[in-house]
Amino acid sequence: MSTVWASGSKWIEVFLHRSFVDRPRRMSTLDLKAMIHRMVDSTQNESLLRSLLNLLEFQTENDRLDGWSALTDVQRAELLLAFGESDDPKNLVPNDEVFKKYGDRP
Fold first, then answer.
1. Mapping DSSP to helix (H, G, I), strand (E, B) and coil, where does residue 75 land?
2. What whole-number distance in Å separates Cα of residue 79 and Cα of residue 37?
3. pLDDT, mean of each 10-residue run, the chain (106 residues)
4. For the chain, how far is it from start to end, CA to CA, in angstroms?
5. Distance separating alpha carbons of residues 17 and 3, to the nearest angstrom
6. What is the sign of the dihedral through the CA atoms of 64, 67, 70 and 71?
7. Of 59, 50, 102, the residue nearest 79 (C-alpha)
8. CB 48 within 8 A of CB 11
């Protein structure tokens, strides 16, 4: 299987597509870890590796919070996609614009 990773958050879209479309069958945790290890070992893309590290750190931090476990798989996928897209500054919205649109902080 050849893997092509595009720049930016495109890799997250590819990952999510493969996770939810191309791999509908259940894989064991051991198989998943082995696949991830092979993919990490095979890439030289430092940006991808940093993004993956950020994603895993984000996931680890959120595992400690109650809200992540309450999300559906689709909600988690959307959140991870948004997280990846936030790496691109053109996708960010300044706080004052958000507060102007949705109101002041609680």
1. helix
2. 23
3. 46 66 69 87 87 82 69 87 84 86 74
4. 49
5. 13
6. negative
7. 59
8. yes
Task: Determine the Cα–Cα distance for residues 31 and 48; give it in Å rounded to an integer.
Answer: 21
At residue 6, the pLDDT reads 43
Tell me the C-alpha distance between 82 and 30, whole Å. Answer: 28
- Residue 1 CA, distance from chain mean position: 21
pLDDT of residue 7: 46
Token pair of 75 as six digits = 């909600």
Give the tokens for residue 12. 């997250």
Integer CA distances (angstroms), 1 to 42, 48, 96, in order: 12, 18, 46
- Give me the residue label for tokens 């991870």: 80
Quick one: tokens of 89? 């500054």
**Is 45:5 a contact under the CB 8 Å cutoff?**
yes
